[in-house]
Amino acid sequence: SRLDYCNSLLYGHLPTLLARLQRVHNSATRLIYNTSRFSPTTPLLYQLQWLSVKYRNIFKILIITYKAINSLAPDYIKELIHFKQSLSSLRSTDEIILDYP
After folding, report:
1. CA 50 distance to own-chain centroid
2. Using only C-alpha atoms, what is the Rg of the chain?
3. What gap in Å lies between CA 71 and CA 67, rounded to an integer?
4. Residue 50, CB half-sphere, CA atoms under 13 Å: how many?
5. What is the pLDDT of residue 90?
6. Pairing relation of β-strands 82-83 and 98-99?
7. 53-69 helix and 15-33 helix, angle to the nearest 10 degrees
8. Tens digit of pLDDT for each residue in 35-49?
9. Helices (H), the chain
10. CB 56 within 8 Å of CB 4
11. Spatial separation of the C-alpha atoms in residues 52 and 32, rounded to whole Å
C-alpha cells in the first residue's frame, strides 16, 4: 500500500515523523469504521489486524532480513548481510549472529 511504501527508511529517525504517519494510519482506521475523530483506534487496529506504524516498520525489516539470510531476497540486499564470526567453539556458535556492516 502507499502507506507502507519506504516507511522502513524512517526506522531510527525522529519520532515526530513516525507520529505523522501514525496519525494518517489512525485516520484511515477511523474512516473504515466511520467513527469520530476522538474515538480510540487501538481496538479498531486490533480488529483489522493491523500493526502500529512502529511495529510495521520493525516487522518489515525483520522480513527483509529473514529473506536475505535464507537467500530469498535479491542479491543487492543479500550483500548487505554480514555474519559475525565466532572465535570460540561454544554451543552458541550454531546461532546466526549478524554483524554491523
Report:
1. 12
2. 18
3. 6
4. 18
5. 64
6. antiparallel
7. 110
8. 999 999 999 999 999
9. 15-33, 42-48, 53-69, 75-78
10. yes
11. 16
Residue 99 DSSP SS3:
strand
90 or 33: which leads in pLDDT: 33
Q: What is the DSSP letter of 82?
A: E
Q: Residue 94, class by beta-carbon neighbours within 10 Å (0-12 exposed, 13-18 middle, 19+ buried)?
A: exposed
Cα 6-71-69 angle, rounded to 5 deg: 75
Which grid coordinates are listed for 51? 500493526
Note the pLDDT tens digit of each residue in 76-96. Answer: 999 998 888 766 666 666 777
Mean pLDDT, the chain, whole residue set: 86
- Contact (Cβ atoms closer than 8 angstroms) between residue 98 and residue 82: yes
**Cα gap 68→62, rounded to integer Å:** 10
